[in-house]
Structure to design on (492 residues):
């Protein structure tokens, strides 16, 4: 039978790897060029890259000042300077994909700033296996249909960012766009069914209010979404310990588990998470 | 000197298989040029997408004749991956009835959905077991886990050509080997260590 998938998510801001909390507060965590290779060695089942740059400028000096100002310690800032000096440091997203895909031997998904069919084509040609679409899908749902017709639904992942509302927190979520800043009028359940009908091959469901908090997945969200989803469902947002993966899995055994921050700071992180999952009787690839 | 040609027929993403094959250290090109195809020692037919689009891609680039000559007449080793494997069949039943290359007698049909736990597409990592003596799977630690993403599969008339299977509700036919014709339903180029070993087996054992 299929193994339960565990996917590290990497966030890139102006070409630099960052971490996120509630979709803000970005700090440098390392060099993406090496990170994918390491995740792949550590048995990550896939790797997802999300470009969260707020503008189209991949200017390194600008990125550096943004990042350094929020950097928690001098070592990180120094490390950035070290990367800058390396010849292969890439700041353009297409160049980044080209470089990463040379060593990434597991499926590679890339998201952020995808607005046209041509944007998808460029990313696939550079070596991505799947693309992640978010804001554009909300603005023009037919884009999902067109993209899956041209490239096949197997490579179209639709990302849905949600915030739990205060009205009925167990039952209600707001779909948001543009890095979680803009609330939409979409009903989450209807939106899930609609994007699947339009041809999304997979869903990446991200909880904005759990992002970076380390308090575990939004289990109510998993329960609701996994019940209605007909395509593979990837859950992201909130993991603070390996037990959180087990708790998410126990809600629905068919979901795919994703996380970002927890994988960043320790050696062998993905492999250790998988060993923990295996001890808890989850069928993972180790 | 081994020269590998990945057939470019306008379908799917070939950067991944190109990168995967390059890591083997062999001379690898991507082409639809008959001369370059003829000059190579090993062929790879990659591909994702529908059966009909795949055959259209081969026909519209006049590749069927040169491939028949290379694979059937000249017995050049070829590896079909995913849709590439399926196109080796006599016919496919995805969105109608479509003729295939007819190198492996048999049909391509949808994976059977007989229980609630079985979703199509079959997407993710699954364990492949050796069914018959295999050059592709030799010296790979078993059961090996490979990455799949597909909704249809090739069912050969002659079951002895099946060398690898995996379990997904029913048995999913994962590897086929018949004379100089090799095929995997999974993506070796995306299956990390065992996948790269399999590509290497194809380049060095055939």
């Amino acid at each position: 039978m299929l193994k339960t998938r565990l996917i590290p998510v990497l966030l890139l801001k102006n070409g630099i790897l960052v971490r996120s909390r509630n979709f803000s507060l970005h700090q440098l965590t390392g060099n993406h060029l090496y990170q994918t290779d390491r995740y792949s060695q550590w048995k990550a089942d896939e790797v997802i890259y999300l470009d969260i740059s707020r503008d189209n400028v991949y200017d390194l000096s600008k990125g550096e000042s943004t990042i350094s100002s929020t950097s928690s310690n001098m070592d990180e800032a120094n490390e950035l300077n070290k990367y800058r000096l390396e010849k292969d440091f890439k700041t353009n997203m297409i160049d980044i994909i080209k470089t990463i895909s040379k060593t990434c031997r597991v499926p590679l998904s890339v998201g952020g700033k995808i607005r046209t069919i041509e944007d998808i084509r460029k990313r696939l040609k550079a070596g991505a296996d799947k693309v992640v679409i978010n804001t554009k899908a909300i603005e023009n749902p037919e884009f999902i249909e067109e993209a899956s017709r041209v490239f096949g639904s197997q490579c179209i992942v639709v990302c849905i960012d949600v915030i739990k509302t205060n009205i009925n927190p167990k039952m209600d979520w707001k779909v948001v766009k543009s890095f979680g800043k803009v609330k939409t009028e979409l009903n989450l359940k209807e939106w899930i069914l609609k994007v699947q009908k339009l041809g999304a091959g997979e869903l990446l469901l991200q909880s904005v209010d759990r992002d970076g908090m380390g308090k575990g997945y939004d289990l109510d969200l998993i329960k609701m979404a996994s019940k209605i989803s007909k395509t593979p469902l990837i859950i992201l947002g909130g993991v603070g310990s390996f037990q959180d993966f087990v708790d998410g899995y126990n809600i629905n055994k068919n979901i795919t588990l994703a996380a970002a921050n927890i994988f960043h700071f320790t050696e062998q992180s993905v492999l250790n998470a998988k060993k923990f999952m295996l001890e808890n009787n989850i069928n993972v690839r180790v | 000197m081994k020269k590998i040609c990945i057939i470019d027929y306008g379908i799917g993403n070939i950067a991944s298989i190109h990168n995967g094959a390059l890591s083997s250290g062999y001379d690898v090109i991507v082409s639809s040029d008959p001369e370059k195809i003829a000059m190579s020692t090993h062929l790879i037919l990659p591909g994702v997408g529908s059966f009909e689009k795949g055959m259209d891609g081969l026909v519209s680039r006049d590749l069927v004749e040169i491939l028949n000559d290379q694979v059937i007449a000249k017995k050049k080793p070829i590896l079909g991956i995913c849709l590439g494997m399926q196109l080796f069949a006599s016919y496919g039943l995805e969105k109608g009835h479509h003729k295939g290359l007819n190198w492996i007698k048999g049909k391509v049909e949808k994976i059977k959905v007989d229980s609630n736990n079985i979703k199509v597409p079959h997407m993710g990592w699954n364990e492949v077991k050796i069914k018959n003596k295999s050059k592709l799977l030799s010296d790979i630690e078993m059961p090996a886990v490979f990455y799949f993403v597909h909704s249809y599969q090739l069912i050969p008339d002659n079951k002895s050509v099946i060398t690898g299977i995996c379990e997904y509700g029913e048995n999913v036919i994962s590897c086929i080997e018949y004379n100089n014709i090799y095929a995997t339903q999974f993506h070796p180029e995306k299956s990390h260590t065992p996948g790269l070993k399999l590509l290497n087996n194809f380049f060095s054992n055939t």
Observations:
- Residues 6-279 of chain A form a domain with the TIM Barrel fold (CATH 3.20.20.70).
- Chain A touches chain B at residues 1-3, 5, 40, 43, 45, 101-102, 105-108, 124-129, 151-152, 154-155, 201-202, 230-232, 254, 256, 285 (CB under 8 Å).
- Residues 56-73, 85-89 of chain A have pLDDT under 50 and may be disordered.
